[in-house]
C-alpha cells in the first residue's frame, strides 16, 4: 500500500546539489543554514555521470530542484526534467575575486628575482612594471562590463571563454603563455589553473550560493502547488489555493481596525485593483484573503486565491512563474510548458506581495496584462484570456519609488484604484493585550496545554510592558512571542505570567519605544549603511528592513548602479 502524500506544510522540499570542484565545500557550508527548510543531499559527480545518476534516482525518488554552477549546471539543465537552479556569481563577487587576484599578482611582482614561482613581469625602458595581467575565464559568454572596470582601475584583464573541459585547458595554457599569473573563474577553471602552476581565484561567494538555495526553495514551493493542482478532481480548488481567512480574522476592537474591516467589505464588492500598504507583519495578506472571501468571486466554482512574493524570486524565475512558459522557451523549460500564476488564478484573485520589488522589465509586462486582460507565455505567441482580480501589497513608499524612477507611474495608478493602509500595532494600543491573549491561548492549545483560569488578569498586569514596546514586527511578532511564552508555560504549568517572566523569555521588550521604533529606513541611510550597521549579516539587515534576502541583494545592486 502506498504511503499517502504529506500535507504541503509538512512536505519539506528535496534539493540535490551537484558539484565536482571546490564549489562542493561552499555548497556544504551553506547547506547547514538550510537544513531546517529542506532535505538537501550533495552529489559529487559532474556532466554525464551526474545526469545518469540523477535520472536513475528520479525513477524512484523525488527531487524538487537541483543546484549547480557553471558548465556543469548548463549541462544538467539541457538534459534533466527536474528544475536546475544555476548559482551565478554577482558583479560584487567578480569585483571581490579580482581584488584578491590583484593582491596575488602584486605580491608576486614585489618579490626579488628568483624567489617566486612565477616569472617577473618584464620592465619597460622607463623601469615601471608592465600592467597587471589577470585572466578571467567564463563559460560560453564573456563579461562585457570588465573592460570598463579594467580601464577604470588600471588592471590588465584578459578574458577568455570555454565550452568544454578541453577548451578550458587550452585557454588556461594560452593565458599562462601570455604572462598571466592569476585566473578568476568557477571551480573547474581554478582547478585547471592551479594544475598549470597559476593561482586560481574562486569567483563564487556564500551570498551567491544562498541566492541559489532561496530560488530552489521557491521553485520547490511553486512546483508542489502545481502538483497539488493537477491532483485535484472535479474542478474543485485545492486548499495552499483557497483564501482561509475572512473579515472575522481581522482581530482588534480599535477604531483603526474597525475601519480596516469596513474597507475590506466595501472593496470586496468591486472588481477594481486594490493596493494594501503596511509595515511587515501587519496583516497585508490576511486583508487580501478577506477581500477575496467577501467578494462575489467566492461563489464561483473555481475561485482560487493565488499569492506570490515578488521580492523572493530572481527576475527570470518571477517572469516564468507569473506568465508561464512554452516548452523549449529557454534551457531547462518544463516539458509540455508551464501555466503561470495568472492562469492559475483565473476567475479568482492574484495577490502580488512586495509589489514594490518587482523589476521594471516585468512591470511593463504586468501593465499590459492588466490592460489587455490576456497573458502571453514566455516563448509563446498565443494570448490566453484571463479574468483575474489583482490585489497587491507593499511595505515601502511606492509613490517615492515612482519619483525615483524605480516604479512605473502608470502601473502604480493602475494597481492603486482602491487603497488601504494598515495601522501598525503600536498605533493600536487597545488591541495589544486582547491579541496577546488570543494568540497565547491558541499557542497553548496547540501544545495540548490548558490556559490558566486567570490568564486574562495576568496579561492585564503585563499591559504596561506590552504597550511600551514598539512591535517592529507588528502582529506577526506578537504571535511569535505568544508561541515562545506558551512553550515555557507548558514546561512550567505553575509559573505565573508576570512582567519579569515575559522579560526573561523576551528580553527585547526591555527596550524603550524609541529604541525599538518601527524599521523605517532613514532618508539618508542606504541599504548598504544598514548592512554595515549589522556587521555584514544579511539575514539581520533584511529582517530589520522587513524584506527578503533576495530583495536586500537587489537593492544593494540598484544602489551600486546609481552611485
UniProtKB/TrEMBL annotation:
Query: What are the BP-aspect GO terms?
Result: propionate catabolic process, 2-methylcitrate cycle; regulation of DNA-templated transcription
SUPFAM superfamilies, from UniProt?
Answer: Homeodomain-like, P-loop containing nucleoside triphosphate hydrolases, PrpR receptor domain-like
**Which Gene3D superfamilies does UniProt cross-reference here?**
1.10.8.60, 1.20.5.170, 3.40.50.2300, Homeodomain-like, P-loop containing nucleotide triphosphate hydrolases, PrpR receptor domain-like
Query: What are the protein's GO molecular function terms?
Result: ATP binding; phosphorelay response regulator activity; sequence-specific DNA binding
Q: Does the keyword tRNA processing apply?
A: no
Keyword field contains Transcription: yes
Q: Which SMART domains match?
A: AAA
Which Pfam families did the record assign? AAA_lid_14, HTH_8, PrpR_N, Sigma54_activat
All residue ranges annotated as the Sigma-54 factor interaction domain in the record: 250-487
Q: Which UniProt keywords apply?
A: ATP-binding, Nucleotide-binding, Transcription, Transcription regulation
Which residue intervals make up region (Disordered)? 108-127
Query: Cross-referenced CDD domains, in alphabetical order?
Result: AAA (cd00009)
| GO CC, any one term | cytoplasm
InterPro entries hit by this protein: AAA+_ATPase, AAA_lid_NorR, Homeodomain-like_sf, HTH_Fis, P-loop_NTPase, Sig_transdc_resp-reg_PrpR, Sig_transdc_resp-reg_PrpR_N, Sigma_54_int
Query: By its UniProt entry, which NCBIfam families does this protein fall under?
Result: propionate_PrpR
Protein name, per record: Propionate catabolism operon regulatory protein PrpR
Species classification = Bacteria, Pseudomonadati, Pseudomonadota, Betaproteobacteria, Burkholderiales
What would be the name of the gene that encodes this protein? prpR
Amino acid at each position: 500500500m502506498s504511503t499517502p502524500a504529506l500535507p504541503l506544510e509538512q512536505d519539506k522540499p528535496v534539493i540535490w546539489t551537484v558539484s565536482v570542484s571546490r564549489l562542493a565545500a561552499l555548497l556544504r557550508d551553506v547547506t547547514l543554514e538550510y537544513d531546517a527548510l529542506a532535505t538537501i543531499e550533495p552529489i559529487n559527480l559532474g556532466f554525464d555521470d551526474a545526469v545518469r545518476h540523477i535520472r536513475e534516482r528520479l525513477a524512484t525518488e523525488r527531487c524538487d530542484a537541483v543546484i549547480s554552477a557553471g558548465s556543469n549546471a548548463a549541462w544538467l539543465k539541457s538534459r534533466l526534467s527536474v528544475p536546475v537552479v544555476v548559482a551565478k556569481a554577482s558583479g560584487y563577487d567578480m569585483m571581490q575575486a579580482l581584488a584578491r587576484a590583484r593582491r596575488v599578482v602584486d605580491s608576486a611582482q614585489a618579490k626579488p628575482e628568483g624567489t617566486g614561482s612565477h616569472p617577473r613581469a618584464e620592465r619597460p625602458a622607463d623601469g615601471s612594471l608592465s600592467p597587471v595581467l589577470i585572466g578571467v575565464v567564463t563559460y560560453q559568454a564573456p563579461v562585457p562590463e570588465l573592460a570598463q572596470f579594467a580601464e577604470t582601475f588600471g588592471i590588465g584583464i584578459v578574458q577568455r571563454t570555454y565550452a568544454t573541459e578541453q577548451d578550458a585547458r587550452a585557454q588556461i595554457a594560452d593565458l599562462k603563455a601570455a604572462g598571466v599569473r592569476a585566473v578568476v573563474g568557477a571551480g573547474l577553471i581554478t582547478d585547471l589553473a592551479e594544475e598549470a602552476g597559476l593561482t586560481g581565484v574562486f569567483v563564487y561567494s556564500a551570498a551567491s550560493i544562498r541566492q541559489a538555495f532561496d530560488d530552489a526553495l521557491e521553485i520547490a514551493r511553486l512546483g508542489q502547488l502545481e502538483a497539488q493542482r493537477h491532483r485535484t478532481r472535479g474542478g474543485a480548488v485545492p486548499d495552499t489555493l483557497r483564501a482561509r481567512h475572512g473579515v472575522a480574522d481581522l482581530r482588534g476592537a480599535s477604531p483603526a481596525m474597525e475601519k480596516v474591516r469596513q474597507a475590506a467589505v466595501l472593496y470586496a464588492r468591486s472588481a477594481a485593483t486594490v493596493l494594501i500598504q503596511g509595515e511587515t507583519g501587519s496583516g497585508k495578506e490576511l486583508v487580501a484573503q478577506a477581500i477575496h472571501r467577501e467578494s462575489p468571486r467566492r461563489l464561483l466554482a473555481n475561485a482560487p486565491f493565488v499569492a506570490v512574493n515578488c521580492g523572493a524570486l530572481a527576475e527570470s524565475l518571477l517572469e516564468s512563474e507569473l506568465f508561464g512558459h512554452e516548452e523549449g522557451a529557454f534551457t531547462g523549460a518544463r516539458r509540455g510548458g508551464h501555466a503561470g500564476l495568472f492562469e492559475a488564478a483565473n476567475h479568482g484573485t492574484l495577490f502580488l506581495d512586495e509589489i514594490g520589488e518587482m523589476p521594471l522589465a516585468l512591470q511593463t509586462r504586468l501593465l499590459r496584462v492588466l490592460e489587455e486582460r490576456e497573458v502571453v507565455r514566455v516563448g509563446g505567441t498565443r494570448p490566453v484570456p484571463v479574468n483575474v482580480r489583482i490585489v497587491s501589497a507593499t511595505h515601502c513608499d511606492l509613490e517615492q519609488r515612482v519619483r525615483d524612477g524605480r516604479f512605473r507611474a502608470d502601473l502604480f495608478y493602475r494597481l492603486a484604484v482602491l487603497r488601504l493602509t494598515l495601522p501598525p500595532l503600536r498605533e493600536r494600543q487597545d488591541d495589544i493585550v486582547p491579541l496577546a491573549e488570543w494568540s497565547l491561548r491558541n499557542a497553548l492549545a496547540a501544545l495540548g496545554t490548558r490556559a490558566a483560569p486567570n490568564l486574562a488578569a495576568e496579561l492585564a498586569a503585563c499591559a504596561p510592558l506590552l504597550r511600551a514596546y514598539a512591535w517592529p514586527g507588528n502582529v506577526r511578532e506578537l504571535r511569535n512571542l505568544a508561541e515562545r511564552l506558551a512553550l515555557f508555560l507548558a514546561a512550567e504549568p505553575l509559573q505565573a505570567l508576570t512582567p519579569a517572566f515575559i522579560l526573561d523569555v523576551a528580553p527585547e521588550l526591555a527596550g524603550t519605544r524609541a529604541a525599538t521604533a518601527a524599521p523605517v529606513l532613514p532618508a539618508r541611510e542606504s541599504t548598504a549603511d544598514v548592512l554595515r550597521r549589522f556587521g555584514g549579516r544579511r539575514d539581520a539587515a533584511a529582517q530589520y528592513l522587513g524584506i527578503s534576502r533576495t530583495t536586500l541583494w537587489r537593492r544593494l545592486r540598484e544602489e551600486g548602479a546609481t552611485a
